[in-house]
Amino acid sequence: MLFRKLALHWKILIGLALGIVFGFVASAAGWKEFTIDWVKPWGTIFIRMLKLIAVPLIFFSLVQGIGSLQNISKLSRMGLKTLALYVVSTVIAISVGLTIVNLIRPGSDFPEDKKEEFQKIYGSDADSKIEIAHSSDEGPLQFIVDIVPDNIIGAASNNINMLQVIFFAILFGIALVVLERSKVEVVHQFVSGVNDVIITMVKLIMQTAPYGVFALMGSLMVELAGDDPASSIQLLQSLGMYAMVVIMGLMFLVIFVYPILLSSFTKIKYLQFLKGIFPAQLLAFSTSSSAATLPVTMRQCENELGVSKEVSSFVLPVGATINMDGTSLYQAVAAVFIAIVFGYDLTLGQQLTIILTATLASIGSAAVPSAGIVMLVIVLESIGVPSSGIALIFAVDRPLDMLRTVVNVTGDSTIASIVAASENKLNPELVNQNKTEE
Ligand code: ASP
Domains in the chain, please, with CATH? Predict the structure, then answer.
């Protein structure tokens, strides 16, 4: 009874803890077969549901995101500046993530034989994907050719071709913006309605997350422990290291990157900035959703930082939809971590592909809890790593989601302040004015 009333993130953490306890008990008691037959399938079902929702989620959320950029032509200068800054900050975030994860290489001390076992357990269909990743060796431009689908149904029928779906969604979104609004109003409404439905589906799926996490963690530990229980501890250590790397990357953005950006382009003092947006950060942490936090982010930027309403009402909603520095950093780290644990050596080309796909994936992630891990499927598939690998990290995803959402909101507020300053629309005097207008 009490369990039902708890907030979802607590339930997930409890599922995680119980899964670990179960994993230890089951491997000590020799319940391997039972666990694989009766517990593991629930984890697999959970991961399948997440993968199931990825194609529709990315399609509709991208089309809606681009479609809502209507006023870009009106605000073309501010719009282009905003988009450019968003893309730059995302690429910086991914590069920070890639650098740290390559330096620390969490999961690399995993024994080779266990890595092979992992591949067997989770990467049954991995070979075909490696082939696909290698097929990009055909010619220098093959990777661009591969992004363009020749058949949208074919592209959508396979999670490997997610970039092709993104390509179609972007083209569709642009066409929607180009057309006169009144002609395509019904399409806008349809897309936004379906988007709501899909986001609700994600919420429903997430209700089962505590049980999914229990099953995933428990069976992962049992399968891995085999006759050597020490390796489950090793697995936990690797997961802990991975989480630390994500947190270090996120902190690097907040401690170094944002203050440098702010002090280069605005006169705002960083402490004043942090104090101003703190309520939004708190809300982001507790809801794991930058969309849910948006009204507070706007209010804080206007009232505490002096960003004009004109700027905040354009830059922040667009940012909540397409700018997710924390999410993109996390996706880069997670992709490399999973590749390491599966024993794949990523080439430079694959790491560059991560920059491209994690940028697109974070643009396509809806600003709701767990959207980032669903979109991780794309990043993994694009580098030929089996996407079932998300099972490995799901257990620790919720706390990381809370933290990356804080960074997503902080990034949006930073860019909003910079755009406002460059448009002469950042005025500390506005702080009081905005407050009195409220
Ligand atoms: N929860 C994140 C957000 O709303 C998205 C994600 O990374 O899952 O910003």
Answer: 2-437 (1.10.3860)
